Amino acid sequence: MKIDAISVFPEMFDSLNHSLIGKAIDNQLIEFQALNPREFTTDVHKTVDDSPYGGGAGMVMKPEPLGQALDKLVDDRTVVIFPSPAGKLFDQATATKLSNKKHLVFVCGRYEGIDQRVIDYSATKAETLELSIGDYVINGGEMASVVMIEAISRLIPGVIGNSESLVEESHQDGLVEYPSYTKPASWNGLDVPEVLLSGNHAEIAKWRRQQQVERTEKNRPDLI
Length: 224
Ligand code: JBK
Known about the structure:
Helix content is 33%, strand content 18%. It contains seven helices and nine strands; from the N terminus they run E-H-E-E-E-H-E-H-E-H-E-H-H-E-E-H. The protein has helices spanning 19-26, 63-73, 92-98, 116-125, 141-153, 163-168, 201-219; strands spanning 2-6, 31-35, 49-50, 60-61, 79-89, 103-107, 127-132, 186-187, 190-191. A five-stranded parallel sheet has the order 2-1-6-5-7. Helix 2 runs parallel beside helix 4. 2-azanyl-3-nitro-phenol is lined by residues 83-85, 132-134, 136-138, 140-141, 144.
């Protein structure tokens, strides 16, 4: 898969060069590049933002540099993603769908957002999605893109070694994970649940499923 990001802070994507995703980039399972829209400015100050029409606080990202960056990267097989708190919620189902695509472009807004015409223009060229990673305020689309890229990349065959570790993990089956334990069996007066030491695999599976249901009911009733 090819993944591009358009961002005035391309260094914020350096974290992708570490860990499993970094290895997938090294192995050419994933090809990642970050492009700075300042490269497409023509004024001495390399201006990428301006004050909003209609007034209000903050600055809005100008359409021309982002539009030119899109022109350079996007074709009709690309999926363009605008991380935004105004977007649809990005979830595991979205990650799975996007992991089957050939080319993703993440367009990162800073400041108060992006001129709406950039999103409308993108939609004339390619499938275009506004996606939110959650209901909180961060300073731009970069870290939201990194989160989505990690969630998507790990679903690409070969990126994660053990396919079972993919299936077993949270949310794939609509419940949160069961609690995990390792040695020692007793630590600081806290004991590993007896059943996990029993060797009875049917009982262990039953206990884990019960734990998943209890934790989901307690912490994530919205999933039930
Ligand atoms: C948020 O994707 N998001 O959720 C997002 C992107 C950019 C700014 C934001 O505050 N929440």
